[in-house]
Amino acid sequence: MVFPFDSVEDFSVVLTPEHEMFRKAVREFVEREVAPKAMEIEEKDEVPWDLLKKIAEQGFFGIGIPEKYGGQGGDHRMAVIMSEEFCRVLPGLSVYFGTNELFLTPILLFGTEEQKQKYVPPIARGEKFGAFAVTEPCCGSDVAGIQTKAEKVGNKWVINGRKAFISSSDVADYFIVLARTYPPPDKKLRYLGLTFFIVEKGTPGFKIEQCYHKMGLHGNHVCELVFENVEVPDENRVGEEGMGFLYAMETFDRTRIGVAAQAVGMMQGVFEKAFQYVHQRQAFGLPIAAFQAIQFSLVEMMTKIMTARLLTYLAAKLADENRKEFTFVASLAKYYATSVAEEVISEAINLHGGVGVIVETGVERYLRDVKITQIYEGANNIQKLVAYRQLIRILKEKGQIPDEIAKFVT
């Protein structure tokens, strides 16, 4: 009944009055400041700087960051709530929160105190932005296969290589870059030898070569980065040399909860539009909501939304409790929420009929947005593989499966 957990209590999703107060505050801000600009941002693919400044003034960029480093504090559940509320109206805006988290997580987990004091507070205040430079033209899901290299020269590192599809990179001030610092010992241990470095905008030899026009998540851009003999001091190395792959995986364990929340928010936003439309649109002398087929669709959509939301909030709660199982549940949430979101959004377009495919209606854009969530931070097929391997590791640690079974999948 409780497998793979230990108790039925592990399935509880605990939300407090503080969480609800925060949700209302985010909803009010988004409705007031973001909703009126959503279609303009969608059309221009640009977020006004004054809007990002207002988000910073509300302290939203500091959610989930310890107060010690200038943040607002809060937990993973609060971050999920914020992401969901923003994605309900304009999903592209939530990417700025996600890329900041991707940059900060390795530093907060493995960085030095000096790195935390220098780089975390400006991002928490919304004065600076971060980006996570791992993906390369050759390598997406195969993180261990990246080709960017860093060579130690004296007390500095010289980085050469290219990165691709890096979100927020055109506005980022700080980049955390994964590079190979020594060859892997063998094929089985090919993940060893990768190291994280902090590279600041304006460093000689580092440039943004081009930005791409993508199908969705408008308002946030992805770009290609070039590193030509980029020198960084050894104090910009994050954590132990050669352990960057493991640091990246631990980072994704946490940030993919936010991707699941993005999908939940998109579903919620498009469902509300569809629900309102079918009760206004008339056919054969009745609102189309009076027809059983429409009612069935709405119920099926709501079931998927609620299931995805509960799974996402469970992952966040387990992460807040630092439970080992959170990694497995986070993978399930990311895979499930982004998958059913495509189904829910597609059905919402169907319920709108012809107007559902009209850009000005503001419905079809959610379908373009959600497709990206199925790809970044672990494509869904890879995500299912990751989820299974995480489950096996957890069961092995609990002694619930023998080593001879675990060795085939870990």
Automatic annotation (TrEMBL):
Organism's domain of life?
Archaea
Give the cofactors, semicolon-separated. Answer: FAD
Tell me the keywords, alphabetical order. Answer: Branched-chain amino acid catabolism, FAD, Flavoprotein, Oxidoreductase
Q: Does the keyword Oxidoreductase apply?
A: yes
- A GO molecular function held by the record: short-chain fatty acyl-CoA dehydrogenase activity
Q: Which residues form the Acyl-CoA dehydrogenase/oxidase C-terminal domain?
A: 242-391
List, for all copies, the residue spans of the domain called Acyl-CoA oxidase/dehydrogenase middle: 131-230
According to its UniProt record, in which pathway does this protein act? Amino-acid degradation; L-valine degradation
GO terms for biological process? branched-chain amino acid catabolic process
Transport in keyword set: no
Residue ranges of the Acyl-CoA dehydrogenase/oxidase N-terminal domain?
A: 16-127
Query: Do you know which Gene3D superfamilies this protein is assigned to?
Result: Acyl-CoA dehydrogenase/oxidase, N-terminal domain, Butyryl-CoA Dehydrogenase, subunit A, domain 2, Butyryl-CoA Dehydrogenase, subunit A, domain 3
Q: Which family does it belong to?
A: Belongs to the acyl-CoA dehydrogenase family.
Mind telling me which InterPro entries this protein's record contains?
A: Acyl-CoA_Oxase/DH_mid-dom, Acyl-CoA_Oxase/DH_mid-dom_sf, AcylCo_DH-like_C, AcylCo_DH/oxidase_C, AcylCoA_DH/ox_N, AcylCoA_DH/ox_N_sf, AcylCoA_DH/oxidase_NM_dom_sf
**E.C. designation(s):** 1.3.8.1
Query: What species is this protein from?
Result: Pyrobaculum calidifontis (strain DSM 21063 / JCM 11548 / VA1)
Q: Name the PANTHER family on file.
A: ACYL-COA DEHYDROGENASE, ISOVALERYL-COA DEHYDROGENASE, MITOCHONDRIAL-RELATED
Species classification? Archaea, Thermoproteota, Thermoprotei, Thermoproteales, Thermoproteaceae
| Protein name, UniProt field | Butyryl-CoA dehydrogenase
The protein's enzyme class: oxidoreductase
